[in-house]
Amino acid sequence: MGMEMVRTGFTATEHGFKFVNSFGFPDSVSLSAITRRPVVLDDLVVGLCGGMSFAALDYYKGNKPIPTVDTVSTIPSRLLLYLLARQLDSLAQGTVIKVLAWTLRRDDSLAMSVAGWEAPKLRKQLSQVGPAVLALIRVGGVTQLMQNHQVVATGYDFDEETKQMVVYLYDPNYPGEMPFLEMNLTKPSTGIALKQSSGEALRGFFVLGYGRKTPPNVS
After folding, report:
1. 50, 71, 121, 172: least buried by Cβ within 10 Å?
2. What is the DSSP letter of 188?
3. Among 133, 140, 119, which Cα is nearest to 182's?
4. Residue 121 burial (CB count, 10 A)
5. Residues whose CB is less than 8 angstroms from the CB of residue 81 and which lie 6 or more positions away in sequence, other chains included
């Protein structure tokens, strides 16, 4: 029994984007090459947390330096289109359906799923494979579905004796910072005291499927 401490090579300061996840999408931005049909972006996304998480992993796994651009207004168009495409990828493969299903579940049910399946799955991936993308369930019901969030888990601490777990993140809402999740898995039937260090509401999380793609070369 002891403390299990796992860190991947991914760090928010070196491998995360430098700009914050806060976008406005003018009518001039077209996704026709991606979707082959008209898309009103502000109806589709509130931010690009999934696209930024997937793309940051693409640069990391491709051994490419993350673009140095540090404001949304100066993002090159080819990078913006890539982030948009990866946002759509992050919402594919039943992810939206699972997010919806999880928002409709009770807190005690989510706690059991996190403790019994998602936390062990995350530990295994971080220790054996590398960084993982997480869907964070922040709300209940369907009226604020887009308030849920996506981040990259970069490492964790797990105390075998107390079952206290800390998961370190790259969160696109906090460039250059390292927020973290905390939980206690001792008795999930009574809750896991799940919270994020930056203070947002948090009900549960699950590990997303990720497939690597080749990002554009952007300075």
Report:
1. 71
2. G
3. 119
4. 14
5. 31, 33, 34
Phi then psi dihedrals of residue 7, to 5 deg = -130, 130
User: Does 212 fall in a domain?
Assistant: no
What is the Cα–Cα distance from 84 to 44, expressed in whole angstroms?
Answer: 10
Task: Show Cβ contacts of residue 16 under 8 Å, excluding neighbours closer than 6 positions.
Answer: 56, 66, 152, 170, 172, 175, 176
Is 218 domain-assigned? no
User: Tokens 């999740």 appear where?
Assistant: 181
What is the length of the chain?
219
Q: 205: part of which helix (H) or strand (E)?
A: strand 204-207
Give residues with Cβ within 8 angstroms of 187, minimum separation 6: none
Distance CA 197, CA 58 (A): 26
DSSP 23: -
Q: Is the pLDDT of residue 119 over 80?
A: yes
What secondary structure, in 3-state letters, does 25-84 show?
CCCCCCCHHHHCCCCCHHHHCCCCHHHHHHHHHHHHHCCCCCCCCCCHHHCCHHHHHHHH
Domain tally for the chain?
1
Q: What is the mean pLDDT of residues 82-91?
A: 94
> Rounded to two decimals, what is the model's pTM?
0.90
Distance CA 162, CA 181 (A): 16
pLDDT in tens, 94-103: 898 999 999 9
